[in-house]
């Protein structure tokens, strides 16, 4: 809200400075269109009526561009920009508290971290109960170490977000995405299916969403 107030003041100042006694600025679905126009960098002269595209369930290119320039891209629009796992992203975007690309990223990381910790505990137990000499023992041990690495990587991302250090998020999430798929690859190499395949897949998808949002969103 603070950003909108500053923008509105800036628009009002621009109009006064231009000597405008009255500017007929229409409303944009209940929002102050002056802010919409300002976000596009368009000038408004006195007596000018500006046509603003309607936004009724369909995101017009001009409307989306204006929202991006104003820094108000929605979580759903951030999901639209991803190359994959969009459905998973849309699901995360509907969770409580997700209102911006930043909170979308934070939530995706939190979801992935919770699942990674659960997998780490699962493989801890499976490794401990595996019989000596069991061919699966090596995979279980590798996967246990792998998810320990994933937990560490996601915890580091969480700390970076909390501290506002977003400059290297993509590289950190890229590392996490590798850890998120290695275990399943080891099963596949032996033509085996992991008994935890579903949760492994869901974990990898959440990591992928976080990586995609970090790579495509600005001003996180």
Describe the SSE topology:
Blueprint: H1 2-17, E1 27-28, E2 31-32, H2 33-40, H3 61-69, H4 75-80, H5 86-93, H6 101-129, H7 136-163, H8 169-189, H9 197-216
Antiparallel strand pairs: 1-2
Q: What strand line-up does the widest sheet have?
A: 1-2
Mean pLDDT: 77
Low-confidence stretches: 1-48
Span between N and C termini? 17 Å
Radius of gyration: 24 Å
CATH class of the largest domain: Mainly Alpha
Q: Short summary of the structure?
A:
The protein is mainly α.
Explain this structure to me?
It is a single chain. This protein folds into 2 domains: 2-72, no CATH class; 90-216, Invertase/pectin methylesterase inhibitor family protein (Butyryl-CoA Dehydrogenase, subunit A, domain 3, Up-down Bundle). Helix content is 66%, strand content 2%. It has helices spanning 2-17, 33-40, 61-69, 75-80, 86-93, 101-129, 136-163, 169-189, 197-216, and strands spanning 27-28, 31-32. Strands 1-2 form a two-stranded antiparallel sheet. A hairpin with a 2-residue loop joins β1 (27-28) and β2 (31-32).
Labels describing this entry:
220 residues; mainly alpha; Butyryl-CoA Dehydrogenase, subunit A, domain 3; two-stranded antiparallel ribbon; 2 strands; elongated; disordered N terminus
